[in-house]
Amino acid sequence: MPADAKDVAELTAAEAAAELARLADVLDTANRAYHNDDAPTISDADYDALKRRNSDIEARFPDLKRGDSPTDQIGAPVSGAFAKIRHAQRMMSLGNAFSDDDVADFVDQVRKFLGLASDARLELTAEPKIDGLSLSLRYEAGKLVQAATRGDGETGENVTANAMTVADIPKYISGMDGVLEVRGEVYMSHADFAALNARQSERGEKTFANPRNAAAGSLRQLDAAITRARPLRFFAYATGEISAPLGATQQDVITKLAALGFATNPELQVFDRLEGLLGHYRRIEDRRAMLGYDIDGVVYKVNDLGLQARLGYRSTTPRWAIAHKFPAEIAHTMLEGIEIQVGRTGALSPVARLRPVTVGGVVVSNATLHNEDYIAGRDSRGNPIRDGRDIRIGDWVEVYRAGDVIPKIRDVDPSRRSSDSAPYVFPETCPECGSPALREEGDSVRRCTGGLICPAQAVEKLKHFVSRGAFDIEGLGAKQIEVFFADDVLPIREPADIFTLAARDAANLAKLKNRDGWGEKSVANLFAAIEEKRRIPLARLIFALGIRHVGESSAALLAQHFRTWPALEAALGEARIGEGAAWDDLLSIDGVGAVMAAAIVNAFRQPDSRAAIDRLVCHLQVIPAEARASDSPVAGLIVVFTGSLEKMTRAEAKATAEKLGARVSGSVSAKTDIVVAGPGAGSKAKKAAELGLRILDEDEWLALIAQNP
Q1: Residue 218: CB atoms within 10 Å
Q2: 321-359 burial, b for 16+ CB within 10 Å, e for fewer?
Q3: Whole-prediction pTM
Q4: CA pair distance 391, 295, nearest whole angstrom
Q5: DSSP annotation string for 101-150
Q6: In a domain, 288, yes or no
Q7: Is residue 432 part of a domain?
Q8: CA-closest candidate to residue 69, choices 481, 614, 554
Q9: Is residue 236 part of a domain?
Q10: I need a surface site. Which of 46, 217, 385, 659 has the fewest CB within 10 A?
Q11: How many CB atoms lie within 10 A of CB 583?
Q12: Which listed residue (51, 65, 129, 461) is catalytic?
């Protein structure tokens, strides 16, 4: 198998690092397409499988976890089309279970975290997982004052006017004082979806691929009148910020929400045994087509809200809930062609062009083929996959998907292959610039070596530079970048060109305003937007540079570590891969591994890329990263727990420390601030003593954080 299809247990460290980089890119693109554009590029099942694979690799190779790891991401940054609303309490995503064993592991982990015996009573709710758009509704003194999408979990889009048009959402709640934040899912029933598509078709307007896309697209309309004309519905399933609790259990909350006038799911039940949960899952799965709305699994939640509070959250998911997903679907169709696309990092990605086929109610015509090894029917070591069956143009292939648009090809039927069929020859030169396309040892993909001379790479890097998480220049998006890149009079070929555009336009007698699609006002707005982004936060600048393996989260880590651009520039200018204090300093950043560090050093030491960075930075005022403010006595400190803890579980101790702003590490070094040593502490406590570190027992730790055992 190729690295991206090989069993995690068989991956080498080099293959694992390359695979984590690929997964970060693919999942980031998928998140933005799904949450911002309402136009998914991969299926739900593929997304879940990729994210699970990422987690499995990180579990096996914890030192390779990336700063921009998909396991630490929720949703995607909000669209610039709507005003932003910061959630009073984060809207988290759910972890996924794909088998009965996964559910059993979840229940066992809950018991272990809480210190419950295997025979202690533990109630969980089970309800359908609605395939719609998450929404938060804020009521003050009974009046609906705000509605926001989940966004990236911390900040969502203000869709209040649109939510007011949804019949299932109460505008007023009589007798309610204080704040009540209700969370739920906006969706569209099967019957309403079919009627909407029929009306769209009659008017010659765009039809929707599935009810989820229709619901999300309808709620995120700039014109609330359009939303009003769409048949949207809403199921309430939880609360966020609230002045007074609605009950002691999850079931109590749902009952109270129903009494307040919210639609709640009638399939919710409570069970105190694993067998009950799984039995309800089977019943819902059997009745799935009869429900009248799309679901993609069953959600289990710890019923007791007090236990939920104790369990708390991981970085992106609650420990007290999990989604048990349904299996995916397959179909068969003809592979009509293979197209090679060149990405920002030079990766040559094969895309299958399929004879359109309906899979699970959605017509699809594209699929991923991963890489050249996958097409050839072998893994990166030459071992056969699919029993050695290769994939050829003209073949009948098995397509795998589970809910959205682009699937993957899982197998091929050689019995239907024509006699003149020939194996596909993967290109060894870039189809865009003709440069050699090489494959490094341990890498699962072939990459163009053209760098900035490759138009595909240059354009994709520029698109990344102006993307939402980077400079986010209003009026200069992906389409405009393509036009300016090809322009001979006012070209944008590298980031610095953006900030000289106005001066060059003036030198050309302001010709831009006379072009098709541009006018005096739009040009003035563009130049003003560019001027506004001359002041840029350090983290955004780092992310915008498009350094391989460096995503938004890792860019934030680098910014927080170096604080200023001169400090970062000086450190990286001195860094040498694999040696020296500057290299060690990079690796000391939690979330930065050797692969990412090498990519960062290369970006600043290669003459061409460094020169491009220098030309850019001279046009900018880089805003230093702010120190994190906190009243916690352990905020910003590195803490190591070792030995046994007697008054809380290890998981609770770690979660508490992180909640207070500490960084919990698994190893002791000179940078460690505190070692909490319980009975049985061994080598870590010994090393801490040798280094003269601060060592606390459990009681001293609890006293430090002012927490009663």
Answers
A1: 24
A2: bbbbbbebbebebebeebebebbbbbbbbbebebeebeb
A3: 0.52
A4: 33
A5: HHHHHHHHHHHHHHT--TTS---EEEEEEE-SEEEEEEEETTEEEEEEE-
A6: yes
A7: no
A8: 554
A9: yes
A10: 659
A11: 19
A12: 129
Half-sphere exposure of 91 (CA within 13 A, CB side): 29
Task: Answer yes or no: are the C-beta atoms of 536 and 498 closer than 8 Å.
Answer: no
Which of 339, 342, 371 is closest to 353 using CA atoms? 339
SS3 call for 256:
helix
Among 600, 623, 646, give the residue marking a domain's end. 623
Average pLDDT by consecutive 10-residue portion of the chain (709 residues)?
68 84 82 63 71 83 78 57 82 90 95 91 96 92 92 86 90 90 93 86 80 84 80 94 94 95 95 96 83 89 95 87 84 90 90 78 77 90 89 91 67 91 94 88 83 85 90 90 90 93 86 84 92 93 90 84 90 85 81 86 84 92 74 82 84 80 76 87 86 90 73
User: Do residues 67 and 596 lie in contact, with contact meaning Cβ atoms separated by under 8 Å?
Assistant: yes
CA distance 79 to 147: 15
- Rounded Cα distance between 562 and 550, Å, is 15
Its domain, for residue 151, covers 84-325
Q: Are residues 221 and 315 in the same domain?
A: yes
Q: Name the DSSP class of 10.
A: G
User: Is residue 129 among the annotated active site residues?
Assistant: yes
| Dihedral of the alpha carbons of 407, 413, 414, 420, in degrees to the nearest 10 | -60
CA-closest candidate to residue 286, choices 298, 273, 276: 298
What is the distance, to the nearest Å, from the Cα of residue 11 to the centroid of all Cα atoms in its chain?
Answer: 23
